[in-house]
Amino acid sequence: MSEPQFSEEELRALEAEMEKITVDDVLLQTVVSLLNLGGRKAGLGSQPGEEPKRDLEQVRLAIEGTRALLPVLEPRHGDKLGPVRDTLSRLQVIYAQVAGQAPAQEPPPHADEPAAAKPGEDAPKPDFEQVRLAIEGARALLPVPEPRHADKLGPVRDTLARLQMIYAQQAQGAQAPDAPGQEPAAPEAPPAPGEAGPAQRSGRLWVPGQ
Question: What is the dihedral of CA 129, 130, 135, 136, to 10 degrees?
Fold first, then answer.
């Protein structure tokens, strides 16, 4: 089956649509999708009289993914996150009731870094705040799939490392979005293997059973 071919006009239209999307939009939609899917995997979508089909491992991943992203979103979108926190709390209660004291999986270390713009006549202006959010969102989520999919995450880590390198290089001499008047700093280095990441150390990354 051949891949669909796009005309130049269609490609330009797709690129224009991509320009409108922000990292904030993607992170918020990801949180909503995780909670919706987590609810279904907890059996909340079952019809009356049906035996709920539950997948507790998927529920756990949805909870951990959401909790990992909340600290990234809170500084800019804290006023919108009340319903998210409520839904997350209910999902955690359901998980705890069904799973009891199931053994927890320790989240593995984070990875690090952002993507360069393609050379062109009109180089896009970097949006350092959006790049920072993308880095933080990716770093927060990486520990969630790593126990089951570590062998597939090499390209993700490589892309993240390049993105952080570009962010650090291009932000030098520019005003950091969260520290006006100060020289911007690169995102923090990843923790050593076996060491808890910043979200877990702060107590905001929930690990079932801990």
Answer: 70
